[in-house]
Each structure stands twice: as structure tokens, then as C-alpha cells.
Amino acid sequence: MFRSIGMVLPVFVLVLSSCSRRTQRAVDPGKLQAVIGPDTARIVQAIRELDTAGVPHFWVDINLHFVAHREYGTFRRGAPGNEDVTNGLHWARLLINHANWALDSLGRSPSSLRDFEGDAHYNYRLYSDAGNLRDSFGGIWFWEPDQWVEFPYGERVLNVVLVDDGKRMLNGSACGFDFCNSVKLYGAWHNVRFEGKFGWWAFASLLNHETGHVFGLCHSFYCGNECAGIDLDPAVECHSGPCFDDCGGPNNGSCNNWLANSNNMMGYNANQNALTPCQWQRLIGNMCRSKAFYLQKRTAEILR
Ligand SMILES: [Zn+2]
Fold first, then answer.
1. What is the whole-number distance in angstroms between the Cα of residue 90 and the centre of ligand 1?
2. Arithmetic mean of pLDDT over the chain
3. DSSP the chain
């Protein structure tokens, strides 16, 4: 039950304003390109028809940042092979693996009119540049208390910032809805340190929820949801009220998505492992149109 309570926080809490950093670092545009190209019309048609064989898969290149709080701390830098959850390197891989597993196997939501089941067509991977001598842990960064948190690869990656404040135990925020490049997850270390109920699996679904916002989706209980009236009913998702009039803001208790028996990725619920066909079409269509440098088209060799 605390899951829904824990996530009642603004999507737009910005402490590390990554979007404002977007112009700070030069990247090599020659190596990076949007999927838009000669086959765009064919891809758009495939998305519209849910002909998934014709829809690209994407890599979302990420970095993870463990930000230590002077009082609340953060994960330790254990040896790479150390499989203790207090080791940030190990926990990070558990997080990414579980988030990718969820994206590979989208499920059903009893509250949806239809479900898009199976492969979401995108996954996360850590990005690292071998030439960056500061990048000791392959795209995983540890920041000391009060240290200025940098995003060393700028726009090239989507930065996942993990921080504790002693209050928020399973909360997230996203930088926006248009392929900006940071999300924040609160409370992971607290749950490990005090053996709380939210493990990496809970933060994996939270990660998918927050990146869902970054890729353009609103809350399932948002009155103006992009799929309202198509295959999603915000009133059903809200359960305890008509709907909530904010795409990504906190619902302030006016909706109870948990009691709606929803599994929707964009709701506040325990599973967050379901998307409707309309939601998926919106999300993957946005990816196809996006020019975000951290989106990379997966090649056929990788897919085999
Ligand atoms: Zn949200």
C-alpha cells in the first residue's frame, strides 16, 4: 500500500536540472542519428497497425549516479564482482536487468480496455566511453556529499540519479516530457540500508514509469490522457475520483490508482508493467521521431 503513497510527489521536482545542461557538451552528431529516414512512412504504418515486426527496437543509453547525502549516505563502491546489494555496482545491474525484463514482457492490466503485451521494443544499457579516464565504473558514478553532480556525457545519455533524503522511500521525478535527459529516484539506499520493502524491482518499475514521462506519456489517471476514450479510461484508473487534471503532477490523493486494480506503467501501483496499445503507439512513435542522442536503434545482429 505504501507504494501509492510513496509516489505522490511532483514529476517536475528539479534539483539537478539536466535539461539546462543540454547545450553544455559537444557531441559528435556524425555518429548519432534519429531513426527518421527513408523508411519513416513504413515504420509509422507498422506502429499504427501494431505490426511489431516492422517496428525498430531502441537502446536507451543511460548512466547511473549514486549521490551521497551527508546524513543519509548512499551505496558503497564495492568490487565489481561483489554481489551484495549494498554494492552500488551490483544493485545498479539488478535495477537495469529488472527494468529491461519488464520492458521485454509487458503484461495485462485489468483496468485497461486493451493491453499491449510482450516486447516494448526498447531497453536500457549503460553507456561508457573507454577514452574517459574518469569513468571508472562503466557509466556508474558515485558522488560525494555536497559534491557537484556532473553529467559527464551530457546529452549522449539519459542520467538516472539515485538519491536519499530520509523522507521519500519510493519516489521519482522526471525532467520533462520531451526526451530531456534525467530522472531522479529517491529512497533506494534507505530501503537497502534498513531492509525496507522496496528492492531493486520496485525501483525498476519506478524507472520505467519516470522514463515513460520523459518519452511523452502522462499518468493513466490524467483527465486528458493521450489514450482516454481509446483504450484507457482515466476515471477507472483514478478510481476514487473522476480523474486528475495534471499530466505528470502529484494527484494529491484525489486518485487511488492502487485500488483501481491497475497495472498500468503510468499509474501509481505495485506492478507498473502494462501499457495499452495506444500508449505504446504514442511512446514508440515519439521515440521514432525523437532526435535524442541517447536513443540508438538496435541492429539486427544484436537482435538475433
Ligand atoms: Zn508519474
1. 26
2. 87
3. -HHHHHT-S-TT--SS-GGGGTTTS---GGG---S-STTHHHHHHHHHTT-GGGS--EEEEEEEEEE-BTTTB--B---TT---TTBHHHHHHHHHHHHHHHHHSB---TTSSS-B-B--SEEEEE---TT-TT-TTSSEEEE-TTPPPP-TTGGGSEEEEEE--SS-SSEEEES-SSS-SEEEEESHHHHHHTT-S--HHHHHHHHHHHHHHHTTPPPTTBTT-TTBTTTB-HHHHH-SSS-BS-SSS--TTS--TTTTT--BTTSSSS---BB-HHHHHHHHHHHHH---TTEEEPPHHHH-
